[in-house]
UniProtKB/TrEMBL annotation:
Domain FAD-binding: 2-338
GO molecular function: FAD binding; oxidoreductase activity, acting on paired donors, with incorporation or reduction of molecular oxygen, NAD(P)H as one donor, and incorporation of one atom of oxygen
The entry's keywords: FAD, Flavoprotein, Monooxygenase, Oxidoreductase
InterPro entries, per the entry: FAD-bd, FAD/NAD-bd_sf, RIFMO-like
Keyword Flavoprotein: yes
Lineage: Bacteria, Bacillati, Actinomycetota, Actinomycetes, Pseudonocardiales
Name of the protein in question: p-hydroxybenzoate 3-monooxygenase
Organism: Umezawaea tangerina
Amino acid sequence: MRTQVGIIGAGPAGLLLSHLLHLEGVDSVVLESRSREYVERRVRAGVCEQPTVELLREVGLADRLDREGLPHHGFSLRFDREDHRIALTDLTGGSITVYGQQEIVKDLIAARLAAGGDIRFGVTGAAVHDVETDRPRIAFDGGELECDVVAGCDGFHGTSRGTVPAGVLKTFDHVYPFAWLGLLAKAEPSHEELIYTNHERGFALHSMRSPEVTRLYLQVDPGERIEDWSDNRIWDELHHRLATDDGFELREGPVIEKSITPMRGFVAEPMRHGRLFLAGDAAHIVPPTGAKGMNLAVADVLVLSRALSALLHKGRTDLVESYSDTCLRRVWRAEHFSNHMTTMLHRASDVDDYQHRLQLSQLRYTATSTAAATSLAENYVGLPF
Ligand code: FAD
Ligand code: DHB
């Protein structure tokens, strides 16, 4: 089997890359280890930056997003049992859209298949070879894909990053002393907007997926097991952390899904080795506070699709050579922003009262200074691609 771009991974990065390449007249094949049902049901991100939404519109992928996505013009920082609204649109002119990552994945798969795209699900044993030549290959159980270029879009635990020889990649790894317990519940959201809460027992986040489905997160210790968190225990903790002096009421409902995710910051540099290009979580992870992960994956593959089109149509190498540097500038901005949001909102068990007072001072400054709120808002809404 042969194609121009062999893509490993059918997450947002791999699927969108395949779509963008198709629009540029470049062929690709996507190899995904899981089933279609699995990737379409995996509950993850929910916040799309403005540049992400604009791109999806431009490339014909936003029909359902525009119908079902929830545009948000602000969110709340909640601390000292009180809300402080960050008016995203008033401050920046921009907005974000709440639309589940798995919905984007469904839309992408449908669009690729409708256009005759080649996505192979359930492909195990993928291994990348010969990326230092002009004819790289992806071997997998039962077959092989020859290509001009390999795109490693296989997420943080994928195989492609590991095929870069030792000494080529420099990795930056920061493990945060927190994890997020995520809960999806069939309950009407308790507030029209997202609420990021700093509470003495730890961070909590109120988000949503639709007018009928609420998404909630709780900071827990990284060693916690989901089996030890009964639904009642989760709701009790959420009620406690989200309580306000003006009587906020958290609506409960049947739990659809719950899981615990550790938090880390990770970057691998450079994002290219020979004809292997890493994109999305395969190259970098951010802590989720601030909702940047999927949006970074989208930004990477936009840059990559243009670079690969120039290479494969015109033999131009400048854009593939600058691919890594171009992406890493945005990646490090997002790492910094996510770190800032995380440290401002979470409670580390070894943090002293001094640190806690600093957090509250930062939160009050952000809530009351137009300059500070605007800086937060422009990062949150998303800097232009
Ligand atoms: P993935 O989505 O991980 O896709 C990689 C794909 O490769 C998967 O389908 C996987 O099955 C496949 N694969 C792996 N190994 C192989 C292999 N060997 N062979 C073949 N296929 C393979 N981001 C945001 O922007 N906004 C948010 O609000 C947000 N919230 C989040 C909340 C949580 C709780 C979590 C966990 C993440 C959140 N993120 C958020 C991050 C976001 O989900 C990721 O950054 C995003 O999924 C990255 O997309 P990707 O395509 O690079 O990787
Ligand atoms: C969601 C996830 C995030 O990481 C975030 O910062 C905001 C919302 C969500 O899943 O809804």
